[in-house]
Amino acid sequence: MSVYVITGVSKGIGFELVRQISEDTNTLVIGLVRDKAATEKKASLKQAAADTAQIIGDRGVDYLVANGAFPSHFDAYDPIGNLATKPQELEAVCSKLFQTNVVGNIHLFNLFLPSVMQGKVKKVIAISSGHADLDLINALEVENSALYAASKAAMNTIVAKFSAQYKRDGVLFVAVSPGVVEVGHYENVLPEQIEGLQRFMGKIAAYAPHFKGLTPVAEAVRTLRETWERLSIEGGFAGAFVSHFGNKQWL
Ligand SMILES: NC(=O)c1ccc[n+]([C@@H]2O[C@H](COP(=O)([O-])OP(=O)(O)OC[C@H]3O[C@@H](n4cnc5c(N)ncnc54)[C@H](OP(=O)(O)O)[C@@H]3O)[C@@H](O)[C@H]2O)c1
């Protein structure tokens, strides 16, 4: 039996991961959803780790998937220079991004590592974003999502640092982008945001002419899982940041 712990399973990719993985009766899936009040008290993850240890006993965790994240909309459609008119919101969003997407995952990794060490597979997968790839930003001049991208880049660095420490114990830490996935993020785009969205989509089309639009979440999750099965320390992926294809092709 394989044991999975996955964060951010209330909706989107996390929800679909739990749905697909739990179809296999030979798996035990523990999905974590945030309790906003407890999150504010910073006690929820510690409790979740203790509760998980109770459920799984000495079986350990095979796959720890850091999926939950704050997908900021504030910076999603505008170049960074345009955010200057709202400095307070910029600061608040940066703090929330760093706290959720970086610090939250540091706590997650530290708290669950003893269970991962007990597991057989020993894979820690952080769901990242192609937005964090410097070569892609520079080649396509991707202006939007600067703050979100920076939080994911910081998370990728943290993943590499955990890998540097725990690779020798056989734990694979890896950051994987899921591609551009349909989870309803663009359902409430405001008229003034449409231009920025179209600019971004135009750049995607130039980068990947085969791209036919947002990937349905079920398909994206299947691809993601197939890829993380292939990733290993022996294959050279310890601490790496890769796409859903397991390479640097982001779409
Ligand atoms: N969809 C894409 O195209 C895409 C592309 C690149 C990367 N990603 C990454 O894929 C992962 C899943 O995102 P998604 O697309 O499925 O988005 P989503 O549908 O918005 O789901 C995000 C999940 O993260 C949780 N979350 C949000 N803020 C949180 C916080 N402050 N603390 C703890 N949990 C929080 C949400 O819980 P609540 O319901 O409580 O808010 C939700 O379960 C994220 O890491 C995202 O960055 C997605």
TrEMBL record:
Organism from which the protein derives: Aspergillus mulundensis
PANTHER family (UniProt xref): CHAIN DEHYDROGENASE (ATSC), PUTATIVE-RELATED, SHORT-CHAIN DEHYDROGENASE/REDUCTASE SDR
InterPro entries (alphabetical): NAD(P)-bd_dom_sf (IPR036291), Sc_DH/Rdtase_CS (IPR020904), SDR_enzymes (IPR052184), SDR_fam (IPR002347)
Record flagged with keyword NADP: yes
Entries under PROSITE patterns matching the protein: ADH_SHORT
SUPFAM superfamilies: NAD(P)-binding Rossmann-fold domains (SSF51735)
Gene Ontology MF term list: oxidoreductase activity, acting on the CH-OH group of donors, NAD or NADP as acceptor
Any one biological process term the GO annotation gives: secondary metabolite biosynthetic process
Signal peptide per UniProt: none
Keywords from the UniProt entry: NADP
Record's protein name: Short chain dehydrogenase
A Pfam family this chain is assigned to: adh_short
Source taxonomy: Eukaryota, Fungi, Dikarya, Ascomycota, Pezizomycotina
